[in-house]
Design goal:
The chain has 359 residues and is an alpha/beta fold. It is built from 13 helices and 13 strands. Helix 10 crosses helix 12. The protein is globular, with a radius of gyration of 21 Å.
């Protein structure tokens, strides 16, 4: 079978879907991937994926401006004649599956998070809901990464329950993210944030909480990994000068930073399933995150859930963590690893995905 994967980022495609594509190739399928060329291009080629460079503007939803992407997908699908099209993220889902439906191709959709479009009851949400209804009418299966996102689709009558498959996120490769002993040195408590630096990741709440802890003379620092999506550079530069933040920019390999941290923190407003939570938990680190679907599933006696968009509640939970004994922090880390092994093992997720696709 010839399979075409549509995605908006080559790095994410490699980091989170390489095992799935490897499994497809092992089963004798020919896999093509259409994506912008960001990073991990050679690594994708090495596992046997045929790559098609496809520029995509990840911000904003404007069908007129994105008409070129629609035409690119049309020409690509007409030329390749794939037997199955697999899409990830909103633009490939909507634009790619519109063409797939019009050309009467089999396709599956992956909802990796609802994003900004579903956050407010405005014109954008109405447009996206209608568009998803159109593409989901002929879809083979829609994969969700949490039950909350699935309920949004079924309650809005976008798709029927029988066409839904709920996965435990993208899963974690337990060999790639092995358990690492909890840091013994607690002279400075390192909280770690990994992600795009933007308001919707809870970055402002995080700045409030870490600043307040520092003002109260707790021995803390916030390590930040990730590129700027919103304009927080001046603010971060100021925090770096004050010794509140260590900023490392985007990193291809986050594991050394997870290993040296004491706790991973993600006060996000919305997620599909936060891979950074799962990767940090796999390496044996406690978690502090928002009490929302896409985050709460990662917490099971291994950290704390805080109210979304509530900087004071985040501060209280970070303070509560700091004041735990070393032994309790170590136990939280062990609980993290156990939870990921039980629920989020990548092998289980890949097998369930293959089964859902009928492969």
């Amino acid at each position: 079978m010839k399979i075409l994967v549509l995605a908006n980022n080559s790095g994410g495609l490699y980091r989170f879907r390489k095992e799935l594509m490897q499994k497809m190739i092992e089963e004798g399928h020919k896999v093509y991937a259409s994506t912008p060329f960001d990073d991990f291009i050679e690594e994708l080629r090495e596992i046997g994926v045929c790559l098609i460079e496809t520029p995509i503007n990840r911000r904003g939803m404007n069908p007129i401006k994105d008409f070129g992407l629609l035409m690119t997908y049309y020409r690509m699908i007409k030329k390749l004649k794939p037997d199955l099209i697999v899409t990830y993220t909103i633009k490939p889902n909507l634009y790619g599956c519109t063409i797939a439906r019009l050309l009467n191709k089999q396709y599956t959709i992956n909802i990796t998070g609802l994003g900004t479009a579903f956050q407010n009851d405005g014109l954008l949400k109405k447009m996206v809901v209608r568009w998803y209804k159109f593409v989901c009418k002929k879809v083979k299966v829609v994969f969700f990464e949490n039950e909350g996102n699935k309920k949004v689709f079924t309650s809005n009558k976008i798709i029927d329950e029988e066409k839904c498959v709920c996965l435990n996120g993208a899963g974690v490769n337990l060999e790639d993210f092995p358990y690492k002993s909890y840091p013994h040195d607690e002279d400075t408590i390192h909280f770690l944030f990994i992600g795009r630096i933007m308001k919707e990741k809870g970055i402002e709440e995080l700045f409030y909480a870490i600043s307040k802890l520092k003002d109260e003379n707790y021995p803390v620092v916030l390590d930040i990994l990730g590129g700027y999506e919103d304009n927080y550079k001046e603010m971060i530069d100021e925090y770096v000068k004050k010794g509140i933040v260590n900023y490392f920019g985007y990193q291809n390999d986050v594991r050394p930073f997870i290993e040296q941290c004491h706790c991973f923190v993600l006060p996000s407003y919305h997620e599909g399933m936060a891979n950074t939570l799962l990767e940090s938990a796999a390496m044996g680190r406690p978690l502090i995150t928002s009490n929302i679907h896409g985050c709460l599933e990662a917490v099971d006696n291994n950290g704390y859930l805080c109210k979304v968009k509530d900087s004071k509640d985040l501060y209280k939970n970070m303070k509560k963590f700091i004041e735990l004994s070393h032994d309790k922090k170590v136990q939280m880390g062990l609980n993290s690893r156990k939870h990921v092994e039980n629920v989020f093992d990548k092998k289980k997720v890949v097998n369930k995905t293959m089964e859902g696709m009928g492969l």
